[in-house]
Design brief:
Mean pLDDT: 90
Oligomer: single chain
Structural class: alpha/beta
Radius of gyration: 17 Å
Number of strands: 10
Number of helices: 8
Distance between the termini: 31 Å
Order of helices and strands: EEEHEHEHEHEHEHEEHH
Largest sheet: 8 strands, parallel
Helix content: 25-40%
Strand content: 5-15%
Low-confidence stretches: 105-110, 262-274
């Protein structure tokens, strides 16, 4: 029997004038507010990621038409723009942060993370947001984990968790793979580090039969047509997890591993997704 699709929506930056490198993955505040209104107008109930995970584990059922909101990287506009829009509507969300990118209003390229310069959250902002939203981890430096040596990937995964838990004073359970990239060995490391969930991209719907350490998401980009977003709201236009990894994904991983071995450090690869 086909599982009911659950759109787990992935956003990055929400601002009107983003840096060029993240612009393809940015939506304007106007468009973001319109997306939230579309969810409400079509009867979707935005639930915390934890509710989806509880249902995946056989716990209480989800509402008839659920959706989940997630945000990657830790851009400053989550504090200034996203949080007020969500709070005004009483909506939950999970924010995955790259710990090495946090600190000041901007970071020079290569300082603390592999992300190019952009206004990022500060640690005081993160502690403030922690009162109302789930904070998750997105590694320390935002590498392609499935192209790293095992020991380096393990450090990125474990150090991110330790840093967040020390800063926030409580367990942090939710993880997101940078660029959406993972592999079986990487997912094993994530579980061994104590993360209880992990989101990928996969360009598909999640479901109660999804994999807790490879939850499918739908990425919202600057060029995502309104019609496609409406399809997602209706539960259409994408596969429903679980579904197998495609051949293109495996070939692309092999290429990136080869490229990483030739062109170190990893920042020589262009930023993509997640």
């Amino acid at each position: 029997m086909r599982c009911r699709p659950v759109p787990v929506l992935l956003y990055h930056s929400v601002c009107a004038d983003p840096p060029a490198w993240i612009a393809p993955f940015t939506v304007s505040p106007r468009v973001f507010a319109e997306h939230l209104d579309l969810l409400a107008d079509h009867g979707l109930e935005v639930v915390p990621l934890r509710r989806l995970l509880d249902a995946v584990g056989g716990g209480p059922p989800l509402p008839p038409r659920p959706a989940v909101l997630t945000f990657d990287d830790g851009f400053a506009d989550f504090h200034t723009t996203v949080a007020p829009l969500l709070t005004a509507r009483g909506l939950p969300a999970t924010l995955y942060v790259t710990t090495g990118a946090l600190g000041g209003p901007s970071r020079p390229a290569g300082h603390g993370s592999l992300l190019p310069p952009a206004p990022m959250l500060t640690w005081p902002h993160l502690r403030e947001l922690d009162r109302d939203f789930e904070i998750g981890g997105h590694t320390v430096t935002h590498p392609q984990l499935d192209a790293l040596p095992r020991s380096a990937a393990q450090r990125e995964i474990a150090a991110c968790k330790a840093t967040l838990e020390d800063a926030l004073g409580h367990r942090v359970d939710a993880f997101a793979y940078p660029h959406g990239y993972s592999s079986r060995p990487v997912r094993r490391l994530v579980g061994e580090a104590g993360w209880t969930s992990a989101t990928a991209v996969r360009h598909g719907f999640s479901s109660v039969a999804d994999e807790p350490l490879r939850l499918a998401r739908l990425m919202v980009r600057a060029d995502t047509p309104r019609g496609r977003y409406l399809d997602w709201v209706r539960g259409e236009g994408a596969p429903v997890a679980p579904f197998p990894e495609g051949a293109r994904t495996r070939v692309w991983r092999s290429y990136r591993r080869l490229r990483a071995g030739i062109d170190r450090p990893y920042r020589t690869l262009p930023p993509t997704t997640g």
